[in-house]
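Long-time lurker. I teach an intro course on protein structure, and each term I like to show students one example going from raw sequence to a predicted 3D structure in token notation. This year I'd like something fresh instead of my usual example. Would anyone be willing to generate the tokens for the chain below so I can use it in lecture? Attribution to the forum is fine with me.
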Amino acid sequence: MNERDILVVAHAQRDDTVEAARRVIVALRDAGARPVLSPDDRAELAEVDPFFADVTALGEADTTVADLELAIVLGGDGTILRAAEVVREGTAPVLGINMGHVGFLAEIERDDMDDAVRQAIDRDYEVEQRLALSVRVKDAAGTVVYETWALNEATVEKASRERMIEVVVAIDGRPLSSFGCDGMVVSTPTGSTAYNFSAGGPVIWPGVEAIAVIPLSAHALFARPLVVSPDAPVAIELLERTDGTGILWCDGRRSHDLPPGARVIIRRSQHPVRLARLHPAAFTDRLVRKFQLPVAGWRGTRE
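-- Reply from a regular --
Happy to contribute to a lecture. Here you go:
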């Protein structure tokens, strides 16, 4: 029987996260699985606690992303996005354990960590697929110069605080409008409670297949948030008359400079992100809990 490789993703910035990572690794070893850390995580954790120095690093001892069974993530949404990046080329789902951060991707709270790890070891979870974005940048000549992906959002923003950018937006290959703005946010349902939400975009339930397009401080009459089909490519082009440059950010983690004339094409990725879910839970309940929404007076469904 092949050894079970399970990735543990954590950072060394918080003592409780370090201790949690240690407990998870011990539990995996006791169950006969092989815990794996990314090389960066192992180096950082080992500086804090020598216990982590002998944990297998991804890429060592024939461990590859393709061999990973699962990624157990200790942290908030930012750490889960980092884990999704690490396992992107494989099929391992990501199980998020919230370590005190406000976020929507982590299903399990820290108090339930030990039970969650036991369920993960027993493979007692379901896999939920989340729509991701494929992002491509072309230069003024139409040559592809950069490709990446996003789980939450891709944003085209002005690079200089004092200058806005001039863009033309096209949906499904047809031009929609041009205007000056501070930027554009193109969000998945997963990212609708992140930057999209802060920019005034709609909250989209995870089961809805759609992409939200939100202008930032646009100088235009028609500059409302749009919800479009994920199969309709969204193109954002920096007009040549733009007085300055822009920058592309994906999930706030990967960036690329955009000179005038650059075009960013965003569409559904053929490779969704896989999340491990231990308990079926209504997204409504998650919204209520995370935003502390008032629901007093609700007496249940009336037949």
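Some talking points for your students: The chain has two domains: 5-131+273-291, 133-268. The radius of gyration is 21 Å.
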